[in-house]
Amino acid sequence: MLSYARAGEHNAVRSSFEDGHRSRMVTHLSETVVRTEALTKRYGGTLALDRLDVELSAGQVLGFLGPNGAGKTTTLRLLMGSLRPSSGRAVVLGHDAWRERSAVHAAVGYLPGDVRLWPRLTGAQTLEYMRRLRGLTRPAGPVSDLDDVAKRLGVELDRPVGSLSKGNRQKVALLLALLGDPPLLLLDEPTGGLDPLGQQEFHRVVRERAEAGAAVLLSSHVLSEVERVADRVAVIRSGRLIMLESLEELRRTARHSVHVRFAQPPPPGAFDRVPGLTDVRQDGAQLRCTVQGEIDPFIKTLAGFQVVDLVSHEADLEETFLALYGHSDGDERR
Amino acid sequence: MTGVTLTAASDTRAPVLRHTLATQRRSLAVWAVAVAALIGLYAALWPSVRGNTGWRQLFDTLPKGYRALFTVGGNIDLSSPAGYLGVELLAFMGPTLIAVYAIGTGSSGIAGEESQGTLELVLSTPITRGRVLIERFGALAAGLAVLGAAQTAALLGFSAALGMGLDPVRIVAAGAALALFGLFTGSVALAVGAATGRPGPARATAALLAVAAYLINALAQLTSVLGPARPLSPFYLLLGNNPLANGLRVGPALAVAGVSVLLVGLGAVLLERRDLT
């Protein structure tokens, strides 16, 4: 059974795609879906992306992590062939992303970072238009479960998109990316505007696609999001890849800001020797500090006191990077 | 969520063209009615113009430059319906209206969608950039054909109703001439928009060229300096002979259509090579 049912005009695209080493039904998990080779993009004098080398295999979710303006969107748009590389290249399923973008697009579901839809079309009409653009005569095979995904995410498909909230527009855009059950999903900050439940369901959908064999590149500036869905993480900053690590390694460098209220003020210096604790500020019965890496020693220490309230949140990435590398964006640039 | 079907079969031919026409359906209808209403207004005035020789005398007292601006050939023939409508409709108002429509439609084709951010979504599918441009050009041509047909139908109707006795073949010629003038200005807007991605410059360039075409034709009648440039003016080539009285000059009309296609082709090449904004 084919997952694509294309009309005549896109036949060339389909056959070149199927003649290649890939078929949707036979998924080799080790197969490379995306490969960039010293991919570089310059805008005038600004280096937006500096010799990026990344690989992504089928069935894998790669979290693309970095603060805003780091080059995530630039990378995804290079992979889509929207931008021409200044040097280097991106290869998607054996096709050059710039020169053979049609062939690439036949295999990619794309969720842009800044979702803009036709305000007067309903979600269903938008899907229908995109399906025609994709040359899908009908949603054969797994695509028909789009109805199911729409229900799970609670998408309002019968209202004009312009009247929807940002989160609901985002859900429509996600359905557009899933259209045709593409073997590669490029998702640029996909959960922006989604409520926590919507995010959770969305992450589940992404995982399911990956388990069905799709490769997923998901960009985010939130570590916890990437943590939930990604198998591997590429961290990018000022257009440069700083690490391409497993999540374990990244988690070890993760930082949390913690705010604790005690029933009685703990004795001064009670937290001086807890490993991974920095920026300790104790003010009577209140403690503010930053925990890096394992939080367990800190929790064990806290257990010795009566705790009234505990608030912990993930430090934002820019903070983490500054702590890790100790210099600002400007120093990174050459 | 009920009643939404995502499973029906789709017709995937010319998706951009059909989407564009579907979204423009209502505004295109309004434009067609406006064109017909304008012609109705001029036609209704015809009986009073015919019997009034004072107009003619007034016109003859105007300076030659002024006359050149408001007529196509510098001469005015208000004694026949074809001459009257040639001056009133084809020398200024008609081309202005059609250019406004065409420039708006042309600039929104690529640049408009790009600045709204929806082009990226369209181009995330296997459809090529060139294909989107061609289908947008097709939608522009189809819209102009509708307006040309509206003018033709209105002229046929009012001519019959008011006994103006206009030649049906020349009525069609006038409709085609106007639509082709729109095709030229719209193609400039579409091509510049495709090359730059910016609707403002696309509109400005097209409007500038439309005004230049108009002024070159008008001023060439006053000064011999502009004489050699006159055959380069699409305004002169299409409307310079008052097609309502004298028919369409087929060669020049094809030349204007050919240049329009060439411009869009050039736009396609530049669109293919540039970064999307």
Q: What is the alpha-carbon Rg of chain A in Å? A: 23 Å
Q: So what's the overall shape of chain A?
A: globular
**End-to-end gap of chain B:** 35 Å
Mean pLDDT of chain B: 89
CATH architecture of the largest domain in chain A: 3-Layer(aba) Sandwich
Residue stretches of chain A low in confidence (pLDDT < 50, at least 5 long) are 1-29, 327-334
Order of strands across the widest beta sheet of chain A?
Answer: 7-8-9-4-10-11
* CATH class categorisation of the largest domain in chain A: Alpha Beta
Task: Name the beta content range of chain B.
Answer: under 5%
Morphology of chain B: globular
What string, H for helix and E for strand, traces the elements of chain A in order? HEEEEHEEHEHHHEHEHEEHEEEHEHH
- The share of residues in helices of chain B is over 70%
Compute the number of strand runs of chain A. 15
Count of alpha/pi helices of chain B: 11
Organism (chain B): Actinocrinis puniceicyclus
Transmembrane segments (chain B): 28-49, 82-103, 137-159, 171-194, 206-229, 249-271
Keywords (chain B): Membrane, Transmembrane, Transmembrane helix
GO molecular function (chain B): ABC-type transporter activity
Write the layout of secondary structure elements.
The complex is a heterodimer of chains A (334) and B (277).
Chain A: H1 11-19, E1 32-43, E2 46-52, E3 55-57, E4 61-65, H2 72-79, E5 87-92, E6 95-96, H3 101-105, E7 108-111, H4 123-133, H5 146-153, H6 166-178, E8 184-188, H7 196-211, E9 215-220, H8 223-229, E10 232-237, E11 240-246, H9 247-253, E12 255-262, E13 277-283, E14 286-292, H10 296-302, E15 307-314, H11 317-325, H12 329-332
Parallel strand pairs in A: 4-9, 4-10, 7-8, 8-9
Antiparallel strand pairs in A: 1-2, 1-3, 1-5, 5-6, 10-11, 12-14, 12-15, 13-14
Chain B: H1 15-50, H2 53-61, H3 64-70, H4 81-116, H5 119-122, H6 129-161, H7 168-196, H8 199-219, H9 234-239, H10 243-246, H11 250-273
